Amino acid sequence: MSATTRDLQRVAAETFGWHELRPEQLTAMEAVAAGRDVLAVLPTGAGKSAIYQVPAVLQEGPTLIVSPLVALQRDQRTGIAERADGEDAPEAVVINSVQRAEENRRAWEVVDEGGAAYVFLAPEQLARADVVERLRHAAIGLFVIDEAHCVSQWGHDFRPDYLRLGHVIAQLGKPPVLALTATAAPPVRADMLDRLGLADPVEVIGSFDRPNLHLAAALHVDEDQRRAAVVDRAAALAEENRGRGLVYCAARAETGRLAEALRSRGIAAEAYHAGLGRARREAVHDRFSSGATTVVVATSAFGMGIDQPDVRFVLHAASPGSLDDYYQQVGRAGRDGEPAVVELHHHARDSAVARFLSARRPKPDSLRAALDAVANRARSLPDVVRASGLSRVRATTALNLLEQAGAVVTDEDGVLHRTEIDADAAVKEAVDHAEGRREVIVSRVERMRLYAETTDCRRRMLLGYFGEQHPQRCGRCDNCDDGTADDVEAPAGDIDTDIDTDAGRAVVHPKFGDGVVMAEDDDRVTVFFHEYGYRDLATEAVRERNLLRPADADEPSTDHVGDDGRGEHNEG
Ligand SMILES: [Zn+2]
């Protein structure tokens, strides 16, 4: 028995006071109400929470919302309470390891009695068998994953805790799943669906374009000069815009240095990174929200949960490791829709550092310790942490790799088991798997560098990365301002009569294997290959040698299959 569109609109208006729903909200809600799995990629401010809040009222069983930050959980609960007050207001409870045991006990009572419409949980809670068991008794009606990009190793904020959600969904008897995120490029989406075990979901994807952001980048060859340029720009923007701003740095030490330099210019600036104590970090958050602090100089740790509408600029004092990270961070500018400035300050060293970091491998010793722990009856992640002496992050990473290597399996009850696979072989396989990801990581670093160095329209390139075409110059980036960007002629039809190269199409290349078309312009096609990452292929070569076939073709033709990759542009 599924709710009709009219039911959804009635609940939206009567319970929450939303008299108008956006088309993408309604489409996603209808799919949720019909019991389908749904992936919604919608920009911040598009009303993602409503997509579960409304159908939840009409469905049997509580809605479970997995949300990574305690602050986010509280905000969402408060949002529900404020909108839906009155006698029949659906009840929302929060369960996490930060609040007092007494509060958790009371929240569980409400769940056990069937009184909770919404249950907010932190992902690490789901590593506990007793928690999953209790949720199974509660008969969850809808499983919502907030910030769902965290499940993908290619997302901008990968969290190993999220990787295990697929198992939990299976343990709970596969209730319908709603995965929500603001940013996910096509490879990230595919990876998310795969890891969550969602077959045939309804995908609702909004536009990634943020027209009010002016995009620019500067290239630097000297670190001191780059630092000086960033400080100058931040000081100038803080003064002329009289608004708040963010400066992102790669290293913790750098945040203090730049904040100090800004304070010496009379700007109310503060540093923020994950190494500061929680009280200190919350204080910086609060002062930024209240406007007492104008500029926060931070590592990527600052951001999730920040929804300040009037951030007028986001500067990067170093390139992040991918355009996924970059786009997520600049997306914090101009949420009120008013003009905002985003500027990347790139140094060739940034790419070298990112490539170096990507070469880090899991230590065979850690893998071995995790494997031994499971062999000795460690049944859950906390058991493995205790038995192996590994940190939680290392243990999670090791278990995930061992699972991919087939040496460890999680059964339907969420219990870990050691398989028959030989330990040496498993460790080697896990190391190789991590190594295989390197190609992809390096290709992402290269995309970031190409963005910094391009003389073409930056918005076109950024949107192309997310699979969105933008043939016209945007007119709101430095390269459009300087006249170095051009309109792209629409390709004259598909490059081959047999193949459709529209963005998002799954294709197969004889050497690189499976991939997804990301973007196409007059002389090249950009494809993300699952094993090799991003590659630019010459359109001419693709056409002549039939290099990209549709992935779903039944009978691959045997023409033109030979040694390949010659159609590849040299990116260097
Ligand atoms: Zn442009």
**Number of strand elements:** 20
What shape does the CA trace take? Answer: globular
Residue fraction in strands: 15-25%
Assign the CATH topology of the largest domain. Rossmann fold
List ligands, each type once.
zinc ion
CATH class annotation of the largest domain: Alpha Beta
Main β-sheet, spatial strand arrangement = 3-4-2-5-6-1-7
**Sequence stretches where pLDDT stays below 50 over 5 or more residues:** 491-500, 554-572
CATH architecture of the largest domain: 3-Layer(aba) Sandwich
Number of helices: 21
Tally of individual domains: 4
Task: Tell me the span between the first and last alpha carbons.
Answer: 57 Å
Mean pLDDT: 85
The CATH homology group name of the largest domain: P-loop containing nucleotide triphosphate hydrolases
| Biggest sheet features | 7 strands, parallel
Radius of gyration: 24 Å
User: From the helix content, strand content and strand pairing, which structural class follows?
Assistant: alpha/beta
Short structural description:
With 572 residues, the protein is an alpha/beta fold.
Topology:
Elements: H1 5-16, H2 23-33, E1 38-41, H3 50-58, E2 63-66, H4 70-83, E3 92-95, H5 101-112, E4 118-121, H6 129-138, E5 142-145, H7 160-163, H8 165-171, E6 177-181, H9 186-196, E7 202-205, E8 213-220, H10 223-241, E9 244-248, H11 252-263, E10 269-272, H12 278-290, E11 295-298, E12 311-316, H13 323-330, E13 340-347, H14 348-358, H15 364-375, H16 381-388, H17 392-404, E14 408-410, E15 416-418, H18 423-453, H19 458-465, H20 478-482, E16 506-509, E17 513-520, E18 524-529, E19 533-538, H21 539-545, E20 549-550
Parallel strand pairs: 1-6, 1-7, 2-4, 2-5, 3-4, 5-6, 8-13, 9-11, 9-12, 10-11, 12-13
Antiparallel strand pairs: 14-15, 16-17, 16-20, 17-18, 18-19
Helix pairs in contact: 1-3, 2-3, 14-18, 15-16, 15-17, 15-18, 16-17, 17-18
The structure holds zinc ion.
